[in-house]
Amino acid sequence: MAEPSTRGEPADLSPEAAGAAQERLRASWEGWLAAIAGIPPERLEEAGVCGDWSVKDLYGHVAFWDRYAIERGRTVLAGAPFAEIDWQAMNEREAEAAAGRSPTELRREMEAAHAEMLAFIAAAPQTPELLVPMLARMAVDTEEHYGEHAAEVRAWRERAGIAG
Predict the structure, then answer these.
(1) Sequence spans of domains, the chain
(2) CB atoms within 10 A of CB 9
(3) What are 11-25's pLDDT values in tens digits?
(4) Distance between CA atoms of 41 and 59, rounded to whole angstroms?
(5) pLDDT of res. 17
(6) 77, 103, 109, 131: which one has the fewest Cβ atoms less than 10 Å from its Cβ?
(7) Distances from the Cα of 76 to the Cα of 58, 82, 109, 146, 147, angstroms
(8) 13-57 per-position pLDDT tens digit
């Protein structure tokens, strides 16, 4: 995973900006799902998609960061400062914890985590002055993240000769 971006507070706190942020999130998720669609089950554990990681590993990785995005959102809503994180150590720990799980189990977890994150957004105050900064902070772990890994999956599929 690339170094997370550091975003300042968004300048545009309009309802349109909130809608645009939610649309970017939706489109990025759909791009991620399109990238992983139709991969043969026997190829899901093949290393080399993202470094040594497989598509299965990315399922668990995306699930973890969607849930972490909820924590980022809570931090914004609470007006609390953000703690520095060691995202590489977090990635390693989460990959190790998910290593023995099946692709099917991790895919379900990824979908559940995404649904939890969307439910969190839906339950959050819908005033743009709160929603827009929250979505901007969450974007590091969601829309930006999905796009990064979707590109890696597409490149791997091309190298591996997997149509998609």
Answers:
(1) 46-160
(2) 10
(3) 677 888 888 999 999
(4) 13
(5) 85
(6) 77
(7) 26, 8, 25, 21, 23
(8) 788 888 899 999 999 999 999 999 999 999 999 999 999 999 999
Identify residue 148 by its one-letter amino acid code.
E
Report the alpha-carbon distance of residue 32 to residue 134 in Å, rounded. 22
pLDDT in tens, 81-104: 888 899 999 999 999 999 999 999
Contact 133, 10 (CB under 8 A): yes
Q: Please, are residues 75 and 133 in contact by the beta-carbon 8 Å criterion?
A: no
Mean pLDDT for all residues in the chain: 91
User: Side chain identity at 119, as an amino acid letter?
Assistant: A
Task: Decide if 117 contacts 27 (C-beta within 8 A).
Answer: no
